[in-house]
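COMPLEX REQUEST
Ligand: pyridoxal-5'-phosphate
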Amino acid sequence: MTSPLADNLRRIRERIAAAAERVERNPDDVAILAVTKTFPVARIRDAMALGLRTFGENRVQEAIPKIEEIGTSDASWHLIGHLQSNKARFIEERFTMVQSIDSVAIAQTLGRRLKTQLEILIEVNVGEEPQKTGALPQDLPAIAEAIGGISTLQLRGLMTVAPMVSDVEEARPIFQRLRRLRDEASQRLAMPLPVLSMGMSDDYVVAVEEGATMLRLGRALFGPR
Ligand SMILES: *Cc1c(COP(=O)(O)O)cnc(C)c1O
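STATUS: Structure written out below.
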């Protein structure tokens, strides 16, 4: 059986494998997060039939009905868009990871709402684009330190959305910087921060070459939104 989605997934895996080989990485160390925002539940089920199990949504309101329909036993859900404080109460028992923590305030609000531990990433606005969410690199140490004092939050690594560029090579220094910021934070906190969530449909090959452990792929899998 073949389908556009199956073909896309096969091509993505080939490109990940080739990129990993170029830099002597194990392609199994690169996870695919299928980004399903704007796509209906039927497309998520198609992806599950191909073995994909981890899905990214960027709005809590859009995610809730999808999570209710599909459940959390065969699929896990990551929030990748900005979390508003009034939505923090919807995270528990729905999402297994929030990738978009970008301030001490939202970390504290979320932490207070949780009864069990939740994995989180700090989103960093590496390109320092004024219109974008994500913590500025210089604010990262304070946020990471604050999270260390919140028992319900388990910091696993960093996430970034690279600037839109015409040549994907321009994204490379952004990914290199996120990796350096991760290495520094890991050393400062004296704990491993294994997750580097970077690389989207247009730039994931470069992200793999620069150490990504999680690619967030929407259009490359499902086609145009
Ligand atoms: C939409 C989105 C993605 C996926 O984008 P594509 O270009 O469709 O791969 C990844 N990360 C975040 C934060 C997003 O909002």
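REMARKS: Residues 4-22 form the longest helix (19 residues). The CA atoms of residues 40 and 66 lie 8 Å apart.
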